[in-house]
Specification:
Number of helices: 2
Structural class: alpha+beta
Helix content: 55-70%
Strand content: 15-25%
Strand order of the largest sheet: 1-4
Length: about 60
C-alpha cells in the first residue's frame, strides 16, 4: 500500500481565484483585512481548498 500525494485540478481551480481575492482583500500597509468577515471567509475556504488539492491518496490493492 503506497501513500501518494494526489493533485486534484478541480480544487486547484477553486484555490487560484480565492488566493487572488485574498491578496486583494488584504491591506499590506496595516496588515489587516479591509472587510474582516469576507477576508476570514476567503482565508478559511482557501486553506480547505489547498488541503483538498494536495490530499494524500491511499491506493489499496486487493490480493
Amino acid at each position: 500500500m503506497k501513500n501518494k500525494i494526489g493533485f486534484n485540478i478541480g480544487f486547484a481551480l477553486i484555490a487560484f481565484p480565492l488566493g487572488l481575492a485574498l491578496i486583494r482583500e488584504f491591506d499590506f500597509q496595516n496588515f489587516v483585512f479591509r472587510k474582516k468577515a469576507l477576508g476570514f471567509l476567503y482565508l478559511i475556504v482557501f486553506i480547505i481548498s489547498l488541503f483538498l488539492t494536495f490530499k494524500k491518496k491511499n491506493e489499496e490493492t486487493e490480493e
